[in-house]
Amino acid sequence: MSTVNHVIVEKNGRLLEIFDSGFSHGPTVVFVHGAGSNASQFAHEHERLCQDFRVVSISLHGHGPQFKDRKFTSEEFRLDKLAGDVLLCMDLLHQERFHFVGNSAGGLVGLELAKQFPERLLSLCTFGTTGKLSFGALVHLIAGIDKLMIWMNPQGYLGFAARNSSRKMEVQEKVKALLLASCHATPYIRSQIGNYDYLNVIRTMELPYLLMECEHDSEINKTLATTLDAAKANPHAKKVFLQEAGHFANLDQPALFVQLLKAHLNDVEARREN
């Protein structure tokens, strides 16, 4: 495996982390995690893809143990600001265009980029992401419960969340470690991802789009029907189904995830060359 460069970014009040590896002259693939996780979720992707791509993973604003003693507000975690953070990181790396892969809230960041800055993206892939949620004021209650339970019993509360994210014990342990490392940021970002609508972006964007539907991602799958319909209406979109995969599909099915993603990226690159 090539060397992974690790950079902490503190700029304009934003607190970010970048892992950067791979063949510098190849196309760049950016991975972004979901609420409460961090960039280390994608260590396997750095290892498996670095020979053919420049691989970048980003810890969103405030995520990761190095930021646990900072003070945050919910406003700092708006999706448009998180999308701007990705561009900040890519500008620091001098990468004008890139493929984007997002898990859960990371997928929403990708959809926000596709909405506002489609010229920066070569393609988009999401997993564990639904295109529309409408929790209304309930989202503030959810964020409040998160904050209270993380303060009272982080091991138990986040352990329960991890057990519901995967059917594999070893993945549950990995997810729990990820969630504990970023639990200080979880309530703030969760308050920003309960009311949104990217269905028209999915329906109309001209970027190559890969939607990964994960068999055991039960909470997301409950609300995925309209997202699948929107993707079906877009000739640039494609859906794949990951068996035996939950919300953290790249951890549940690492080999299959890389296989499907690499096929998508190679297809996009081949079309760009023609």
Architecture overview:
- The protein is of the alpha/beta class.
- It has one domain (5-132, 196-273): Rossmann fold, CATH 3.40.50.
- The chain has 12 helices and 10 strands.
- It has helices spanning 43-49, 79-92, 105-116, 138-152, 154-163, 169-181, 186-190, 199-204, 218-221, 225-232, 249-252, 254-273, and strands at residues 5-11, 14-22, 28-32, 54-59, 98-103, 121-127, 132-134, 195-197, 209-214, 237-242.
- The longest helix has 20 residues, at 254-273.
- The mean pLDDT is 97.
Summarize the structure.
The chain is an alpha/beta fold and 274 residues long. The protein has helices spanning 43-49, 79-92, 105-116, 138-152, 154-163, 169-181, 186-190, 199-204, 218-221, 225-232, 249-252, 254-273, and strands at 5-11, 14-22, 28-32, 54-59, 98-103, 121-127, 132-134, 195-197, 209-214, 237-242.
Task: Outline the secondary-structure elements.
Blueprint: E1 5-11, E2 14-22, E3 28-32, H1 43-49, E4 54-59, H2 79-92, E5 98-103, H3 105-116, E6 121-127, E7 132-134, H4 138-152, H5 154-163, H6 169-181, H7 186-190, E8 195-197, H8 199-204, E9 209-214, H9 218-221, H10 225-232, E10 237-242, H11 249-252, H12 254-273
Parallel strand pairs: 3-4, 3-5, 5-6, 6-9, 9-10
Antiparallel strand pairs: 1-2, 2-4, 7-8
